[in-house]
Amino acid sequence: MAIASAALGFPRIGAKREVKKASEAYWAGKISAEELQKVAKEQRLQRWQTLQQQGVEIIPSGDFTLYDHVLDFNYTFNIIPKRFAEAKLSALDRYFAMGRGHQKDGVDLEAQEMQKWFDSNYHYIKSEVSSSTEFRLNDTKPVDEFLEAKEAGIQTRPVLVGPITALLLGKAGRDEADRASFEPLSLLGKLVPVYGELLKKLQEAGATEVQIDEPSLVMDVTANLAKEYQSTFEALAQAAPGLKITLATYFGRLDKNVEYVAKLPVSALHVDLDRAPDQLDQVLAAVKPTQLKLSLGLVSGRNIWKNDFAASIAIAKKAVEALGEDRVVVASSSSLLHTPVTLANESRLSADVKDWFSFATEKAAEVATIAKALSGADVQAALDANKKSIDARRAFEKDSDASVRDRLNKVEPAMYDRKSAFPTRKAAQDKVYDLPTFPTTTIGSFPQTKEIRLARSKNTKGELSTEEYEKFLENEIKSAVDFQEAIDIDILVHGEPERNDMSQYFGEQLQGFVFTENAWVQSYGSRYVRPPIIVSDVSRPHPMTVRWSSYAQSLTKRPMKGMLTGPVTILNWSFPRADVSKEVQCKQLALALRDEVCDLANAGIFAIQVDEPAIREGLPLRQVDWDAYLTWAVDSFKLATAGVEDKTQIHSHFCYSDFGLIFEHIKRLDADVISVEASKSDLKLLEVFHKHGYENLIGPGLYDIHSPRVPSVQEMKDRLAAFMKALPSQKYIFVNPDCGLKTRGWAETKAALENLVEVAKWARQQYQ
Ligand code: MET
Ligand SMILES: [Zn+2]
């Protein structure tokens, strides 16, 4: 009997970003809804055909989306907040409004909140539910897409977000009376019957299998939900007895949950053996005495590396031995949506580097090949070719930069710590610049105007010489410096006009990264990113930012703040290597940045900010793993910043909030100054400071830069006053916005910063 192959999901953006282009054209009123739907339909067909051509047998449907699959779920199950339900909009526009807001023809709707999808960089739309939510089938998208595939002659396995995960990811809506204590999961009993109805419809449409995604099962929250899972899946199995359910878990390990999960009335369990290969024995032991099939997530849905067939086959054989051939399926570890569509459109990667990678299309073929190999088909040529690539990669790896490894091995414990403790450093810093109390500063970037983007793209295309481009950047920096002096900011920044992206900018200058032309992955909606790929040991061949910061400093007597992206953030926003640990990669990045930090200090830059907005999002899914991650993450930051003398003021910046959870670790960074996003979460953050105390300097973000709204002097005074109350020992609070200003326009930036300076001047009087 042959072993089946499955893909849990596929990118939905199109190999040439067709879906982005069409949706943005639709939003701009340039194409009709029908034209957009036509593109969507073509893309769906192409995805199915691609998977089929690559030899995958179990092909997903319903995982295509015009915006977000959780939003699709909400729309299908009528989880539509009142403000959207009542708006006079077409069905399609209502759907988009929920994802991205709507401001047209007198309708003004804010988008719903986004959140990161587990530990990926994909953002989903958070459902808003309440006691009055009435689940019903508002549309039949999963059924429609199943039928669409069937008409094209392709039998698919519909994919649905699982009901428990869906509720766990949601939050109390605005119409919930008691939002603080409302538990979305309390609605499970109401959701399950409607969910069952949908399964029944799928069955009637001819589906024989369905994939229900419950990635929450790899997190701590589900440890006590055995009963909920049991009753839910019993009800679902009853609602559609003809449908074989594959319960999919991914991004981590089931741990103890596997004990109850293996008893659920489903026909197959899918586990992630890419992220959590060590769980195999435990899973096999739990599954063996049951009737369950086991779907082995062997081909990574999260990275871009070629699968090592020999290793995968060895793992799969173990499963076959334990369960028998007919109980094993070979699959991608998760949906492939987190990987780029295809390698076929990369013409600039060198042949040897390209040979290391597999994107979604190639990964589909890998799944099929592994399954065939296990079924005894003759795939020797593919296995040989794979071995050759893997060997070549290993050989390269072996000669990858020995000097970098050597340097890392020689890092002494003392290199992680500043020379003196904070009070001594503070005294040294005060001698260099006698800053006023409540010094004002900004977080780094100034508006990335059309002109800046145009100049950059002309330079890339060769239409603007590098000399002209650099002159242009200098002018930008000069006007930023003039502006800050004019409105009386105390610690200046150069404004980051030279950066396309805060992570990519550094990756492009570091040794060890490669960049693609078309390897886009969806970040949210129509926003796609092209993460840099770390392929070898990382080092810094030359200074990266020193010339810009020095130039800025040469224009003013006020202190300049250099601006770098931290090692953890660069790592988290790239595709990491798979052959060495993230810790090693992060520390290599840290050493490269350490050189940059020292060069900036030697060039006379007084303050250096090393941004770590992504430190929080890199947290492992299970809490027992947090300490290990935070230890090397914090150490990496320290390694990057501790090389300077006491007189250099090290800043760091965090945003995307909710870092209260990791506050003890933030303290351990020992930055002289941290700026934190605070404007949207006042109370929460105050509690954190109150509870943990904080001795070094803080710059609570006094206004939200994510909106063009100009904050009033009064509201910022109130916020500052609240902080002064919570931090009575801090007589030296920094006054700043909550993040960089790159997404803003100049008009609101000027107005807001003028108000900010006024607040600082008021505070100097108020708190003498
Ligand atoms: C997402 S954090 C951004 C920090 C960066 N220095 C900026 O101002 O843009
Ligand atoms: Zn920020």
Automatic annotation (TrEMBL):
Domain of life where this protein originates: Eukaryota
Record note on cofactor: Binds 2 Zn(2+) ions per subunit.
Domain Cobalamin-independent methionine synthase MetE C-terminal/archaeal as annotated: residue spans: 438-761
Keyword Transmembrane helix recorded: no
InterPro entries according to UniProt: Cbl-indep_Met_Synth_N, Cobalamin-indep_Met_synthase, Met_Synth_C/arc, UROD/MetE-like_sf
EC number from the UniProt entry: 2.1.1.14
Biological or metabolic pathway of the protein: Amino-acid biosynthesis; L-methionine biosynthesis via de novo pathway; L-methionine from L-homocysteine (MetE route): step 1/1
Residues reported to bind Zn(2+): 653, 655, 677, 739
Cofactor list: Zn(2+)
Alphabetized GO MF terms: 5-methyltetrahydropteroyltriglutamate-homocysteine S-methyltransferase activity; zinc ion binding
Binding site for L-methionine: 443-445, 496, 611
GO biological process: methionine biosynthetic process; methylation
Cobalamin-independent methionine synthase MetE N-terminal domain mapped to chain residues: 6-319
Active site, renumbered: 706 (proton donor)
UniProt binding sites for 5-methyltetrahydropteroyltri-L-glutamate: 20, 121, 573
Keywords: Amino-acid biosynthesis, Metal-binding, Methionine biosynthesis, Methyltransferase, Transferase, Zinc
Entry's family note: Belongs to the vitamin-B12 independent methionine synthase family.
Role this protein plays: Catalyzes the transfer of a methyl group from 5-methyltetrahydrofolate to homocysteine resulting in methionine formation.
Descriptive protein name: 5-methyltetrahydropteroyltriglutamate--homocysteine S-methyltransferase
